[in-house]
Amino acid sequence: MPDAGRETVRDRNDDDARRTERDPGAHSEPSSGGAEQAVETQGESPLVRRALSAAVSRETPDVITPPLEQPEGPDTPIARAAQAAVAMQNGQEEWPRPKACRVMTVANQKGGVGKTTTTVNLAVSLALHGNRVMVVDLDPQGNASTALGVDHHADVPSIYHCLVEGRPLAEVAVEVEGIPNLLCVPATIDLAGAEIELVSLVARESRLRRACEAYDSDELDYILIDCPPSLGLLTVNAMVAGSEVLIPIQCEYYALEGLGQLLRNVELVQAHLNPELQISTILLTMYDGRTRLAQQVADEVRSHFGELVLSTVIPRSVRVSEAPSYGQSVITYDPGSTGALAYKDAAKEMAYQNSGQVQPAGTEENQA
């Protein structure tokens, strides 16, 4: 008696053979050459070729260049951030320039609120978008000089020589490498004893103002003065020299405690030394959207200062902390990071202040 199971298997094999004769490739395994061809077909577009060949070491590449032929993509936050980073890196977008040079004092006697970081990144953002900027490092620690990659060892001509010896700013200002339109007046360790030496000098509170007035203001759009975390003679010199005060405020409770003292000092300088001084800008820094406290601090500051507070907030960012160790701002270190895009939006708001022009929309993720 024939085995039904074997007959079934034999019949199935015969059917497979007949199908193979009609279609030789029906049961053949795909060759490795076919796989390679499929990969090559997938990589035909310029965008895919760039993605396959890119070597990324941080959040974004060091130099971001758009593809030769890139179709319009979806309007997503990531796409907008990438486009903003490309425009910022290539200087494709120009912002309004003020009618006269704006001398801005970046001050807050509380340390660790982001004064130097704010000064450096706002300056770089403005310079990359067509404004001529000078950073005056008035902090003896010289952190702004370090972040801009400017040499500030003891023998370098610095802001100390302008304040104590009366040297012109033009003799000590140096160009920042890789950033067109940006100058830096470095600070050295000599500045630590400047306050004692200034006490016995004539017009000790206005030494920096005289130096700024002697500089050709037609060559600059902004002078940003990075102050030390104190309210001594150096900070007073900065307030007398400037017409605007920019206050970075960390989104934490302790950051609000010393704000009242700073405001009283601004009023004293207004009354006795510089009646033109005014608080023009307040920037919320180190914002952590995961905490209720950060939002409460932001709401309280906005309710008290109103339109003086920029709509952009600076989030906590690892890239912002890393950049100074490489002698760079976060704008050049990682232009596509959240910190870089936030500072770019804040600088754009500053550029459009009192310009009479309508500001284009910024990055929604950086507003609170």
Describe the structure.
It is a single chain. This protein is of the alpha/beta class and about 375 residues long. It has a domain of about 250 residues: Rossmann fold (3-Layer(aba) Sandwich), CATH 3.40.50.300. It has 17 helices and eight strands. Strands 3-4-2-5-1-6-7-8 form an eight-stranded mixed β-sheet, sandwiched between helices. β7, α14 and β8 form a beta-alpha-beta unit. α5 packs across α17. About 10% of the residues have low confidence.
Quick overview:
The protein is α/β, with parallel strands linked by helices. The protein contains 17 helices and eight strands.
Query: How much of the sequence is in beta strands?
Result: 5-15%
Largest sheet: 8 strands, mixed
Distance between the termini: 86 Å
CATH architectural type of the domain at 102-353: 3-Layer(aba) Sandwich
Q: Overall mean pLDDT score? A: 81
Q: Walk across the major sheet and give the strand order.
A: 3-4-2-5-1-6-7-8
What spatial form do the alpha-carbon principal axes imply?
globular
Count up the helices: 17
Helix content: 40-55%
Taking all Cα atoms into account, the compactness measure Rg is: 29 Å
What is the succession of H and E elements?
HHHHEHEHHHEEHHEHEHHEHEHHH
At the fourth level of CATH, the homologous superfamily of the domain at 102-353 is: P-loop containing nucleotide triphosphate hydrolases
Q: Looking at CATH, which topology of the domain at 102-353 would you report?
A: Rossmann fold
Uncertain runs are 26-44, 50-57, 60-71
Alpha-beta classification: alpha/beta
CATH class of the domain at 102-353: Alpha Beta
Could you tell me the number of beta strands? Answer: 8
Organism: Allonocardiopsis opalescens
Pfam family, one: AAA_31
Protein name: Chromosome segregation ATPase
Biased composition (Basic and acidic residues): 1-26
